[in-house]
Amino acid sequence: MAQSQEVSQVPALTLPISLTPNGVAATELRPWGSFTILEEVRGYKIKRIEVKPGHRLSLQMHYHRSEHWIVVSGTAKVTCGDQELILGSNQSTYVPQCTTHRLENPGVIPLVLIEVQNGEYLGEDDIVRFQDDYSRSQSAAK
């Protein structure tokens, strides 16, 4: 209760724009862009992901979750298992659990997509990296 009272005294202008029923969602910066958790409850998490032009996420795999990616704007180059595809606005793809995958922005404008994760464990540490352009450790987030 004391924590709620402290938060309510913070001026509205200092709070992030993205709010969820479970609290405030903050944007996390990465070398390739950023992500914002829009909603997270047991069994699923929804993120807004932005990838800078010419950048890509690590080639990775998750043991405990699948992901569905919906492109909002820009162009996505997707590697999923042995397949490689290009997606544009309003197109989507599914990444099954335990499947190697990578997201890349080959375009000249930011890639914005919505990611829906499903699974019993959705922690950022459920990432096995196979390649990473930014030399991050295996336990770091996407």
Task: Describe this structure in a few short sentences.
The chain is mostly beta strands. Helices cover 5% and strands 48% of the residues.
Question: What are the salient characteristics of this protein?
Answer:
142 residues; mainly beta; six-stranded antiparallel β-sheet; 1 helix
Largest sheet: 6 strands, antiparallel
Mean pLDDT: 85
As laid out across the biggest beta sheet, the strand order is 3-4-5-12-7-10
What is the H-and-E element order?
HEEEEEEEEEEEEE
Q: Give the low-confidence spans.
A: 1-20
Structural class comes to mainly beta
- Fraction of residues in β-strands: over 45%
The strand count comes to 13
Mind telling me the C-alpha Rg?
16 Å
Whole-Å distance between the termini? 34 Å
Structure notes:
- The protein is globular and about 35 Å long.
- It has a six-stranded antiparallel β-sheet with strand order 3-4-5-12-7-10, with no helix packed on it.
- A hairpin with a 2-residue loop joins strand 1 and strand 2.
- The chain has 142 residues and is mainly beta.
- The N and C termini lie far apart (34 Å).
- 5% of the residues lie in helices and 48% in strands.
- The protein has one helix and 13 strands.
- Mean pLDDT is 85; it is low at 1-20.
Topology:
Blueprint: H1 2-8, E1 19-20, E2 23-24, E3 27-30, E4 33-41, E5 44-51, E6 59-61, E7 65-73, E8 76-80, E9 83-87, E10 92-95, E11 101-104, E12 111-119, E13 128-131
Antiparallel strand pairs: 1-2, 3-4, 4-5, 5-12, 6-13, 7-10, 7-12, 8-9, 8-11
